[in-house]
Design goal:
Number of domains: 5
Strand content: 15-25%
Structural class: alpha+beta
Number of helices: 11
CATH class of the largest domain: Alpha Beta
Number of strands: 10
CATH architecture of the largest domain: 2-Layer Sandwich
Largest sheet: 3 strands, antiparallel
Radius of gyration: 56 Å
Shape: elongated
Order of helices and strands: HHHHHEEEEEEEHHHHEHHEE
CATH superfamily of the largest domain: Band 7 domain
Protein backbone atom coordinates (compact mmCIF):
# COMPACT_ATOMS: atom_id res chain seq x y z
CA UNK A 1 0.00 0.00 0.00
CA UNK A 2 2.88 2.46 0.77
CA UNK A 3 4.39 1.69 -2.61
CA UNK A 4 1.14 2.58 -4.31
CA UNK A 5 0.92 5.86 -2.36
CA UNK A 6 4.27 7.05 -3.78
CA UNK A 7 3.10 6.60 -7.40
CA UNK A 8 2.00 9.69 -9.33
CA UNK A 9 -1.71 10.12 -9.62
CA UNK A 10 -1.82 9.27 -13.35
CA UNK A 11 -0.04 5.95 -12.66
CA UNK A 12 -2.48 5.13 -9.86
CA UNK A 13 -5.39 5.86 -12.07
CA UNK A 14 -4.00 3.73 -14.90
CA UNK A 15 -3.43 0.87 -12.43
CA UNK A 16 -6.95 1.22 -11.04
CA UNK A 17 -8.40 1.49 -14.51
CA UNK A 18 -6.61 -1.70 -15.60
CA UNK A 19 -7.84 -3.53 -12.50
CA UNK A 20 -11.39 -2.37 -13.10
CA UNK A 21 -11.33 -3.48 -16.73
CA UNK A 22 -9.72 -6.86 -15.90
CA UNK A 23 -12.45 -7.46 -13.29
CA UNK A 24 -15.11 -6.77 -15.91
CA UNK A 25 -16.74 -4.13 -13.71
CA UNK A 26 -18.10 -1.49 -16.05
CA UNK A 27 -19.10 1.52 -13.95
CA UNK A 28 -18.75 4.81 -15.84
CA UNK A 29 -19.09 6.83 -12.68
CA UNK A 30 -16.11 5.13 -10.94
CA UNK A 31 -14.00 5.28 -14.09
CA UNK A 32 -14.60 9.00 -14.58
CA UNK A 33 -13.56 9.70 -11.01
CA UNK A 34 -10.50 7.55 -11.31
CA UNK A 35 -9.35 9.38 -14.43
CA UNK A 36 -9.58 12.81 -12.81
CA UNK A 37 -6.29 14.43 -11.88
CA UNK A 38 -7.82 16.28 -8.97
CA UNK A 39 -8.47 13.29 -6.61
CA UNK A 40 -6.06 12.87 -3.72
CA UNK A 41 -3.56 10.03 -3.67
CA UNK A 42 -5.24 8.14 -0.82
CA UNK A 43 -8.55 8.08 -2.72
CA UNK A 44 -6.90 6.51 -5.74
CA UNK A 45 -5.22 3.92 -3.56
CA UNK A 46 -8.52 3.14 -1.82
CA UNK A 47 -10.19 2.76 -5.19
CA UNK A 48 -7.48 0.38 -6.43
CA UNK A 49 -7.70 -1.78 -3.28
CA UNK A 50 -11.49 -1.86 -3.57
CA UNK A 51 -11.38 -3.01 -7.15
CA UNK A 52 -8.78 -5.71 -6.49
CA UNK A 53 -10.75 -6.98 -3.49
CA UNK A 54 -13.90 -7.13 -5.61
CA UNK A 55 -11.99 -9.10 -8.25
CA UNK A 56 -10.75 -11.66 -5.68
CA UNK A 57 -14.24 -12.10 -4.21
CA UNK A 58 -15.71 -12.62 -7.66
CA UNK A 59 -13.11 -15.30 -8.37
CA UNK A 60 -13.84 -17.05 -5.08
CA UNK A 61 -17.58 -16.91 -5.70
CA UNK A 62 -17.08 -18.37 -9.17
CA UNK A 63 -15.07 -21.26 -7.74
CA UNK A 64 -17.70 -21.93 -5.10
CA UNK A 65 -20.41 -21.97 -7.74
CA UNK A 66 -18.45 -24.44 -9.88
CA UNK A 67 -17.82 -26.70 -6.88
CA UNK A 68 -21.48 -26.55 -5.88
CA UNK A 69 -22.65 -27.38 -9.40
CA UNK A 70 -20.25 -30.31 -9.63
CA UNK A 71 -21.39 -31.58 -6.21
CA UNK A 72 -25.05 -31.34 -7.21
CA UNK A 73 -24.45 -33.22 -10.43
CA UNK A 74 -22.44 -35.87 -8.52
CA UNK A 75 -25.28 -36.35 -6.03
CA UNK A 76 -27.85 -36.62 -8.82
CA UNK A 77 -25.63 -39.15 -10.63
CA UNK A 78 -25.18 -41.29 -7.51
CA UNK A 79 -28.90 -41.23 -6.71
CA UNK A 80 -29.86 -42.07 -10.27
CA UNK A 81 -27.44 -44.98 -10.57
CA UNK A 82 -27.21 -46.13 -6.94
CA UNK A 83 -28.79 -49.49 -7.75
CA UNK A 84 -26.15 -50.00 -10.44
CA UNK A 85 -23.22 -48.83 -8.33
CA UNK A 86 -23.80 -50.35 -4.88
CA UNK A 87 -24.63 -53.98 -4.19
CA UNK A 88 -24.80 -56.12 -1.05
CA UNK A 89 -23.59 -59.69 -0.64
CA UNK A 90 -25.43 -61.48 2.18
CA UNK A 91 -23.86 -63.90 4.69
CA UNK A 92 -24.88 -67.00 2.70
CA UNK A 93 -23.86 -65.55 -0.67
CA UNK A 94 -20.79 -64.97 -2.84
CA UNK A 95 -20.47 -62.83 -5.98
CA UNK A 96 -18.30 -62.32 -9.05
CA UNK A 97 -18.05 -59.34 -11.42
CA UNK A 98 -18.09 -59.15 -15.20
CA UNK A 99 -16.11 -56.18 -16.53
CA UNK A 100 -17.52 -55.25 -19.94
CA UNK A 101 -14.64 -53.04 -21.01
CA UNK A 102 -11.68 -54.46 -19.10
CA UNK A 103 -11.03 -58.16 -18.85
CA UNK A 104 -14.46 -59.78 -18.79
CA UNK A 105 -15.31 -62.23 -15.98
CA UNK A 106 -12.99 -62.03 -12.97
CA UNK A 107 -13.16 -65.67 -11.87
CA UNK A 108 -10.64 -65.46 -9.05
CA UNK A 109 -11.94 -62.35 -7.26
CA UNK A 110 -14.89 -63.77 -5.32
CA UNK A 111 -16.78 -61.08 -3.39
CA UNK A 112 -17.43 -61.94 0.24
CA UNK A 113 -20.41 -60.76 2.37
CA UNK A 114 -20.75 -56.99 2.77
CA UNK A 115 -21.42 -53.77 0.82
CA UNK A 116 -19.51 -53.36 -2.45
CA UNK A 117 -19.15 -50.73 -5.19
CA UNK A 118 -18.87 -51.24 -8.94
CA UNK A 119 -19.06 -49.23 -12.14
CA UNK A 120 -22.64 -48.95 -13.47
CA UNK A 121 -21.76 -50.73 -16.71
CA UNK A 122 -20.25 -53.78 -15.00
CA UNK A 123 -22.46 -56.73 -14.04
CA UNK A 124 -22.50 -58.62 -10.75
CA UNK A 125 -23.58 -62.27 -10.37
CA UNK A 126 -24.60 -63.35 -6.88
CA UNK A 127 -24.68 -67.03 -5.86
CA UNK A 128 -26.34 -68.69 -2.89
CA UNK A 129 -23.66 -70.87 -1.26
CA UNK A 130 -25.65 -72.30 1.67
CA UNK A 131 -26.45 -76.01 1.49
CA UNK A 132 -29.56 -76.66 -0.58
CA UNK A 133 -31.47 -79.73 -1.73
CA UNK A 134 -33.22 -80.97 -4.82
CA UNK A 135 -35.76 -83.79 -5.07
CA UNK A 136 -36.03 -85.88 -8.22
CA UNK A 137 -38.60 -88.49 -9.26
CA UNK A 138 -37.69 -90.74 -12.18
CA UNK A 139 -38.34 -94.11 -13.81
CA UNK A 140 -35.37 -96.45 -14.21
CA UNK A 141 -34.79 -100.00 -15.45
CA UNK A 142 -33.23 -102.67 -13.28
CA UNK A 143 -30.76 -105.33 -14.41
CA UNK A 144 -33.58 -107.44 -15.88
CA UNK A 145 -35.31 -104.54 -17.64
CA UNK A 146 -38.04 -104.11 -15.03
CA UNK A 147 -39.34 -100.53 -14.69
CA UNK A 148 -38.91 -98.98 -11.25
CA UNK A 149 -40.08 -95.57 -10.00
CA UNK A 150 -37.53 -93.93 -7.73
CA UNK A 151 -37.58 -90.72 -5.65
CA UNK A 152 -34.20 -89.35 -4.58
CA UNK A 153 -33.01 -86.31 -2.63
CA UNK A 154 -29.60 -84.73 -3.15
CA UNK A 155 -28.01 -82.11 -0.83
CA UNK A 156 -25.19 -79.90 -2.15
CA UNK A 157 -23.63 -76.42 -2.29
CA UNK A 158 -21.21 -74.57 -4.64
CA UNK A 159 -17.56 -74.48 -3.62
CA UNK A 160 -17.27 -70.92 -2.26
CA UNK A 161 -14.00 -69.91 -3.84
CA UNK A 162 -14.80 -71.44 -7.24
CA UNK A 163 -18.09 -69.84 -8.21
CA UNK A 164 -16.33 -67.81 -10.90
CA UNK A 165 -15.37 -71.02 -12.70
CA UNK A 166 -18.84 -72.46 -12.08
CA UNK A 167 -20.39 -69.36 -13.61
CA UNK A 168 -18.08 -69.52 -16.61
CA UNK A 169 -19.32 -73.01 -17.51
CA UNK A 170 -22.93 -73.11 -16.34
CA UNK A 171 -23.86 -69.56 -15.08
CA UNK A 172 -26.51 -69.19 -12.38
CA UNK A 173 -28.68 -72.00 -13.79
CA UNK A 174 -26.11 -74.64 -12.82
CA UNK A 175 -28.74 -76.68 -10.95
CA UNK A 176 -30.77 -77.27 -14.10
CA UNK A 177 -27.74 -77.68 -16.36
CA UNK A 178 -25.46 -79.72 -14.09
CA UNK A 179 -26.87 -81.09 -10.84
CA UNK A 180 -30.17 -82.58 -11.96
CA UNK A 181 -28.87 -84.22 -15.18
CA UNK A 182 -25.91 -85.79 -13.37
CA UNK A 183 -28.10 -87.15 -10.57
CA UNK A 184 -30.51 -88.70 -13.07
CA UNK A 185 -27.68 -90.20 -15.09
CA UNK A 186 -25.93 -91.74 -12.08
CA UNK A 187 -29.16 -93.18 -10.65
CA UNK A 188 -30.01 -94.87 -13.94
CA UNK A 189 -26.51 -96.25 -14.47
CA UNK A 190 -26.12 -97.64 -10.96
CA UNK A 191 -29.60 -99.16 -10.66
CA UNK A 192 -29.16 -100.80 -14.04
CA UNK A 193 -26.51 -103.00 -12.42
CA UNK A 194 -28.87 -104.47 -9.77
CA UNK A 195 -32.11 -106.44 -9.76
CA UNK A 196 -35.36 -105.02 -8.45
CA UNK A 197 -35.14 -107.24 -5.38
CA UNK A 198 -31.63 -106.00 -4.56
CA UNK A 199 -32.64 -102.37 -5.04
CA UNK A 200 -35.84 -102.79 -3.04
CA UNK A 201 -34.47 -104.78 -0.11
CA UNK A 202 -31.19 -106.62 0.11
CA UNK A 203 -28.72 -104.07 -1.35
CA UNK A 204 -30.45 -100.74 -0.97
CA UNK A 205 -27.65 -99.19 1.12
CA UNK A 206 -25.06 -100.43 -1.38
CA UNK A 207 -27.02 -98.82 -4.23
CA UNK A 208 -27.22 -95.50 -2.39
CA UNK A 209 -23.48 -95.52 -1.71
CA UNK A 210 -22.63 -96.26 -5.35
CA UNK A 211 -24.90 -93.48 -6.63
CA UNK A 212 -23.45 -91.01 -4.12
CA UNK A 213 -19.85 -91.82 -5.04
CA UNK A 214 -20.36 -91.58 -8.79
CA UNK A 215 -22.51 -88.43 -8.67
CA UNK A 216 -20.28 -86.73 -6.09
CA UNK A 217 -17.15 -87.20 -8.22
CA UNK A 218 -18.71 -85.61 -11.30
CA UNK A 219 -20.16 -82.69 -9.34
CA UNK A 220 -16.90 -82.02 -7.47
CA UNK A 221 -15.03 -81.88 -10.78
CA UNK A 222 -17.40 -79.04 -11.67
CA UNK A 223 -17.03 -77.17 -8.33
CA UNK A 224 -20.13 -78.55 -6.57
CA UNK A 225 -19.76 -80.26 -3.18
CA UNK A 226 -22.41 -82.96 -2.61
CA UNK A 227 -23.17 -83.73 1.05
CA UNK A 228 -25.70 -86.55 0.70
CA UNK A 229 -27.86 -88.51 -1.71
CA UNK A 230 -30.81 -90.44 -0.30
CA UNK A 231 -33.33 -92.81 -1.90
CA UNK A 232 -36.64 -91.67 -0.42
CA UNK A 233 -38.86 -94.31 -2.00
CA UNK A 234 -38.80 -97.18 -4.49
CA UNK A 235 -42.06 -98.09 -6.19
CA UNK A 236 -42.37 -101.45 -7.93
CA UNK A 237 -45.31 -102.95 -9.87
CA UNK A 238 -47.78 -104.41 -7.36
CA UNK A 239 -47.26 -108.05 -8.42
CA UNK A 240 -43.47 -107.80 -8.33
CA UNK A 241 -43.57 -106.08 -4.99
CA UNK A 242 -45.88 -108.77 -3.54
CA UNK A 243 -43.69 -111.56 -4.92
CA UNK A 244 -40.57 -110.00 -3.39
CA UNK A 245 -42.30 -109.53 -0.06
CA UNK A 246 -43.54 -113.14 -0.08
CA UNK A 247 -40.06 -114.38 -0.89
CA UNK A 248 -38.58 -112.29 1.87
CA UNK A 249 -41.21 -113.62 4.28
CA UNK A 250 -40.41 -117.21 3.34
CA UNK A 251 -36.73 -116.54 3.72
CA UNK A 252 -37.36 -115.15 7.16
CA UNK A 253 -39.43 -118.22 8.11
CA UNK A 254 -36.71 -120.50 6.76
CA UNK A 255 -34.11 -118.63 8.74
CA UNK A 256 -36.27 -118.90 11.85
CA UNK A 257 -36.75 -122.67 11.33
CA UNK A 258 -33.05 -123.15 10.72
CA UNK A 259 -32.37 -121.22 13.88
CA UNK A 260 -34.64 -123.53 15.88
CA UNK A 261 -32.97 -126.60 14.39
CA UNK A 262 -29.56 -125.27 15.22
CA UNK A 263 -30.75 -124.51 18.71
CA UNK A 264 -32.11 -128.06 19.24
CA UNK A 265 -28.93 -129.55 17.86
CA UNK A 266 -26.91 -127.45 20.21
CA UNK A 267 -29.09 -128.51 23.16
CA UNK A 268 -28.85 -132.21 22.23
CA UNK A 269 -25.12 -131.92 21.90
CA UNK A 270 -24.97 -130.26 25.28
CA UNK A 271 -27.00 -133.08 26.91
CA UNK A 272 -24.88 -135.76 25.24
CA UNK A 273 -21.71 -134.20 26.45
CA UNK A 274 -23.17 -133.85 29.96
CA UNK A 275 -24.32 -137.50 30.01
CA UNK A 276 -20.96 -138.71 28.79
CA UNK A 277 -19.27 -136.70 31.50
CA UNK A 278 -21.57 -138.08 34.17
CA UNK A 279 -21.08 -141.67 32.99
CA UNK A 280 -17.34 -141.28 33.04
CA UNK A 281 -17.56 -139.82 36.53
CA UNK A 282 -19.62 -142.79 37.73
CA UNK A 283 -17.20 -145.22 36.17
CA UNK A 284 -14.36 -143.56 38.01
CA UNK A 285 -16.24 -143.64 41.32
CA UNK A 286 -17.35 -147.27 40.89
CA UNK A 287 -13.87 -148.39 40.04
CA UNK A 288 -12.51 -146.77 43.18
CA UNK A 289 -15.07 -148.28 45.63
CA UNK A 290 -14.24 -151.49 47.63
CA UNK A 291 -15.74 -153.32 50.63
CA UNK A 292 -13.00 -152.20 52.96
CA UNK A 293 -13.39 -148.56 51.81
CA UNK A 294 -17.14 -148.73 52.36
CA UNK A 295 -16.70 -150.19 55.90
CA UNK A 296 -14.21 -147.47 56.72
CA UNK A 297 -16.60 -144.77 55.47
CA UNK A 298 -19.43 -146.42 57.53
CA UNK A 299 -17.33 -146.33 60.72
CA UNK A 300 -16.48 -142.68 60.07
CA UNK A 301 -20.16 -141.89 59.59
CA UNK A 302 -21.08 -143.69 62.81
CA UNK A 303 -18.47 -141.75 64.76
CA UNK A 304 -19.76 -138.49 63.39
CA UNK A 305 -23.31 -139.54 64.19
CA UNK A 306 -22.39 -140.29 67.79
CA UNK A 307 -21.22 -136.71 68.22
CA UNK A 308 -24.64 -135.36 67.34
CA UNK A 309 -26.81 -133.95 70.19
CA UNK A 310 -29.92 -135.55 68.72
CA UNK A 311 -30.90 -138.96 70.07
CA UNK A 312 -30.27 -141.71 67.58
CA UNK A 313 -31.00 -145.43 67.42
CA UNK A 314 -28.27 -147.14 65.49
CA UNK A 315 -28.40 -150.84 64.67
CA UNK A 316 -25.14 -152.38 63.73
CA UNK A 317 -25.03 -155.46 61.58
CA UNK A 318 -26.70 -154.43 58.38
CA UNK A 319 -25.66 -155.69 54.98
CA UNK A 320 -21.93 -155.75 54.86
CA UNK A 321 -21.76 -154.88 58.56
CA UNK A 322 -22.82 -151.23 57.98
CA UNK A 323 -24.86 -149.37 60.64
CA UNK A 324 -28.57 -148.71 60.04
CA UNK A 325 -30.15 -145.40 61.14
CA UNK A 326 -33.67 -146.30 62.36
CA UNK A 327 -34.74 -143.03 63.93
CA UNK A 328 -33.70 -139.41 63.58
CA UNK A 329 -35.23 -136.88 65.90
Amino acid sequence: MLALAKLPVPNLIREANASIQSANIINPFIISIARSYFIPNFIAVKLLILVQTQKTMDQLDSRKIVVAVVAIFAIIFVLAFSSSIFYTVEATERAVLFYKFSGGLDKDDVKTPGLHVKAPWNEVYIYEVAETKEEEAMDVLDKNGLSISVDVTVRFYPVHGMIGYLHEKFNTSYIEKLVKPEVRSSVRQVMGRYTAEEIYSTKRAEVETAIKEETGKVLLDNNIEMKALLIRSINLPAQIKQAIENKLEQEQESLAYQYRLDKEKSEAERKRIAAEGEAKANDIVNSSLSDKLLKMRGIEATLELSKSENSKIVIIGGEGGMPLILNDK
